Amino acid sequence: MIRRTFLAMTTALALSAPAFAQEADIVDTAVAAGNFTTLAAALTAAGLVETLKGEGPFTVFAPTDAAFAALPAGTVEDLLKPENKDQLTKILTCHVVAANAMSTDIVKMIADDGGMHKIGTVGGCEFTASMDGDAVKITDGQGNVATVTIADVKQSNGVIHVIDTVLLPAM
After folding, report:
1. What is the second-level CATH architecture of the domain 2-163?
2. Fewest beta carbons less than 10 Å away: which of 50, 122, 139, 150?
């Protein structure tokens, strides 16, 4: 059931959003998709574009523009300031795992670990993956919970899982 749901979402995405092409890398896809403009601007401000255009493999939990807009007023603008580059880099790299983790892999790890699986990120964050029905949930270091809304957007250098909440490191 879960596998069919993810497969159906991936198929629907591939048919409805030609920007998500397997030949593209993670950054090119995020830029072309149109609903990751804040993420693209943040990657540029943090100097992470070339890294995420690299060979990988990377798994990116990519927050949408709506996810960034849900942060407290002024947060994104403050993070994009040059003096906050280190903090921005930390937040963004906490959305990246140095592996090619498809949804079936994540779901299996959650099941194998008794319903919760710890995820270590490139940014040194530790988040927890769990299931809520058929949905994969990621709990960040501050207790915020992101839902994977689109899974398994395969790219030339990894995979994107679209999420509805910006993940934040523990304080």
Report:
1. Roll (2.30)
2. 50
